[in-house]
Amino acid sequence: MFGQAAYTVIWITLFFGDKIDTDLLTRILDNYGFKALYSICLIPIAYFLVFINKKYIIK
């Protein structure tokens, strides 16, 4: 999660960083929140795919 936060701050600052204001902070927090929620939602799917892979594909 720290890596996502660092990546988000660097990317948004470089892409939208003409001036630092509350809009930039809002973009950073929104982007990080989306990435964190997305990764949390995909964890069960990833675990399920690893389970299927270990049980049926790799014997």
Explain this structure to me?
The chain crosses the membrane at residues 32-52. Keywords: Membrane, Transmembrane, Transmembrane helix. The chain is mainly alpha-helical and 59 residues long. The protein is built from 2 helices and no strands. It is elongated and about 55 Å long.
Question: Helices, strands, pairings?
Answer:
Layout: H1 2-16, H2 22-57
Helix pairs in contact: 1-2
Question: What attributes characterize this protein structure?
Answer:
86% helix; mainly alpha; transmembrane helix; transmembrane; 59 residues
Short description:
Keywords: Membrane, Transmembrane, Transmembrane helix. By secondary structure, the protein is mostly helical.
Broad shape: elongated
Report strand %: under 5%
What's the average pLDDT?
Answer: 89
* SSE pattern, N- to C-terminal: HH
Q: Which residues form runs of ≥5 with pLDDT under 50?
A: none
Transmembrane segments: 32-52
Keywords: Membrane, Transmembrane, Transmembrane helix
